[in-house]
Amino acid sequence: MTAPHALAVTLALCVCASALAGGDAYRLSAAPARVEFRPEAGASDAPTGSWWRDPGEFTRAGSTWLTVGGGVAPDFSDNTDFNAHLAWSKFLVDDVEFMLELGGWYHNQPHDDAFGLNPNLVFRWHFLKSEDLAWTVYADAGIGLLFATDDVPQGGTHVNLMPRAGAGVTRRITDDGARLILGVRWHHISNARVNGQDENPSRDAPMFYAGVSFPF
């Protein structure tokens, strides 16, 4: 190839390189290629849809909670029962809570007062709730046994049944999910006539209670 031909070829290659480089034939980049995966517009890091909820969210199936509280049950005569309780609960399905509760009692009654322990099984249905779960309204029912240091009521027995049913509300009070619980229920004590009708005095009263529930 003669010198003029070689010069012409060289100029042609420079022109092509300049066109491919956007007019800057003297700045060539050898940076490695980089591949990025970007979410589509509007996508978020968290799953969306009504099926997804935060693992600690109240009323969600599978979530577990620890509750501490207390209450009072006056029968508007000579008897008043005072309660403190600790409960563990789990939502079996959305909105339906199964609870294991241990209550401690002080029975203020004529003649001999008594102390008692009271294990319970309770089912609670949160049938009404706000969209953001700031509050719920529930109904519940359960049954337990009372083991007392003296006859409760007077003239009865040391061991009794304690069925219950009632309603209440919960309200979220902290950012990490703790909730205030306020409720009222039917408070009943009797021995189901295990020693006959004559030794089965019963006690019925409204019980007013409050508690705080924490994700657990």
Can you characterise this structure?
This protein is mainly β. The longest helix has 18 residues, at 3-20. It has one helix and nine strands. The chain has two domains: 1-28; 64-215, Porin, CATH 2.40.160.20. The model is unreliable at 14-21, 23-35 and 39-55 (pLDDT under 50). A hairpin with a 4-residue loop joins strand 5 and strand 6. The chain has one helix spanning 3-20; strands at residues 64-74, 80-93, 96-108, 114-129, 135-152, 157-161, 164-172, 179-189, 203-215. An eight-stranded antiparallel β-barrel has the order 1-2-3-4-5-7-8-9.
Strand order of the largest sheet: 1-2-3-4-5-7-8-9
Q: Give the CATH architecture of the largest domain.
A: Beta Barrel
CATH topology of the largest domain: Porin
Secondary structure class reads: mainly beta
Report, as a whole number of angstroms, the end-to-end distance: 86 Å
What level of helicity do the residues show?
Answer: under 10%
Instruction: Report the total helices.
Output: 1
Domain unit count = 2
Strand fraction equals over 45%
Rg, nearest Å: 36 Å
User: Mean pLDDT across all residues, rounded?
Assistant: 82
Helix and strand sequence:
HEEEEEEEEE
Summarize the structure.
The chain has 216 residues and is mainly beta. It is built from one helix and nine strands; from the N terminus they run H-E-E-E-E-E-E-E-E-E.
